[in-house]
Amino acid sequence: MDELIINFIKTYGLPLGLIALGGVVLLCILKYGNVFRKLAEKWRHFLYLTITIGFSLIASAIYLAASGQFSAEYFFAVGLAIFTLDQAIYAIIKATPAGDLVSGLFDKLKAAIKKKTSATAAELPVVEQNDENAETTAQNGATPPTDGGNAQTPNK
């Protein structure tokens, strides 16, 4: 039995560890962003657990299909391994200073995204309006309507 476990870890250890880390990152993003803040806390925990289980099973199916080893036994074994790794990695992050490090990284990432989006929004062109009839001027690449703004649908 010990030999089976060791062979399983040798064969699947790194790929499953990386997949599980991806699941933890997804979970941390959802929790950091407080995506489900409108739900009661007990329902949020249930939803996060459901997302983690779903991610583990989907990731297991994709991994096994890509490696050409898809079978029911492997599917559940790999899915359970990914779920277990997800839970272990997440518990380590929450119980150690690594959680503060992850929150700090998300804070910096959020600030960088806000800075980038606010700089992009500031660069958007301003559309000028003609005071006489409030039509968009041709200087900005838009042409005023030729029918005086009275579009009618054809009769059928």
Please tell me about this protein's structure.
By secondary structure, this protein is mainly alpha-helical. It has a domain at 17-117. Helices cover 69% and strands 0% of the residues. The protein is built from four helices and no strands. Helix 1 crosses helix 3 and helix 2 (41-67) crosses helix 3 (72-95). The chain is elongated and about 60 Å long.
User: How many H/I helices?
Assistant: 4
For the sheet with most strands, the description reads: none
Structural classification: mainly alpha
User: Portion of residues in helices?
Assistant: 55-70%
Measured by DSSP, the beta-strand proportion falls in: under 5%
Order of helices and strands: HHHH
Q: What average pLDDT do the residues reach?
A: 74
